[in-house]
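Format notes (please read before filing issues)

Several people have asked whether sequences and structure tokens are stored in separate files. They are not. Every record keeps both together, in the order shown below: the sequence lines, then the token lines. Line labels are part of the format and must not be stripped during preprocessing.
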Amino acid sequence: MKPGRYLKDKIIEIAIMFFGCLTVFLLLLAFKVSHELIIGIFFVLTMIMISVFLIDFWKRKRFYDRLITYTEQLDKKYLVLEMLHEPQFYDGRLFYQTLYEINKSMIENVKELEINMEEFKEYIELWIHEIKLPISSLTLMNHNYQIDKRYQYQIKRIDDYVDQVLYYVRCEHAEKDYLIKETSLKKVIHEVALKNKNDLLDHHIRLLVNIEECLVLTDSKWLEFIISQIISNSIKYCKSNSDSYIKLTVKDLVNRTVLLIEDNGIGISSQDIDCVFDKTFTGQNGRLTFKSTGMGLYIVKKLCDKLGHRIEIQSKEGQWTKVMLTFYDHDFYKIKD
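Then the structure lines:
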């Protein structure tokens, strides 16, 4: 709060007091009061005026400076009233009470929205679990009766998109759904390979796995989804030749383990590489196929952040793409006897 702006706002009050003092001065002259007494009265009135304005300015400055400072420092700015005391001047108290009522109304509305969103999330999860049953039945029927592979492919796509919806719904509150423990990376990759076996065979892609037994701290279900999404992208954007491959290797480094997933597909353009984790971003490659939604890698990045993993992508357009998934060693996860 600046003194100049404060005085400018109080210009009417200052003018009234000035004319009041001038009136008193003229009346004292009319009644032939001694000049010494007039000067003394004028001095006292001036000091009273200055004191009144200084005290009022100090009270307001103290309150509004704190309001501005706390508002700038807080991430959740609607909590600013929790850090302020009710001011001692009347219009400040009116302002404080009004902010309090507005804040209370906003919190109640946000709470109602959170409840509605939680109910919707629970419904979606229930619906997904229910829809998984007929999808599994269709998959089994397709396997038993050797129905056209095109049906099998479409069932697989439906199942993948249903999984995406489930993990997207959960990723905002993933900490409630996962369990961090030592997990066999080789076993997770084996499950991913089985899940994507038909797609790999249909596209004539070799899956090269060079991984010894390796334990990482993660959640096996979430990691299986993450790796499966990466493998699916590699399959989706493979080259149309018989020499396509996806290679998985592990580097055991100090305090961390890196899973490298490399393919020799069509790659990612340099202008798209920094945006691949953005929501609904499809880029040049996504425009080449109707299959791309731009959600897969976005969900993968969100889950990696929740799990404490690091994911990076490097690529050269038309030649290769490398995905580095880093698992860090955290001793506090280990249970000691």
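For reference, the curators noted about this record: Confidence is low (pLDDT under 50) at residues 332-337. The longest strand covers residues 245-253.
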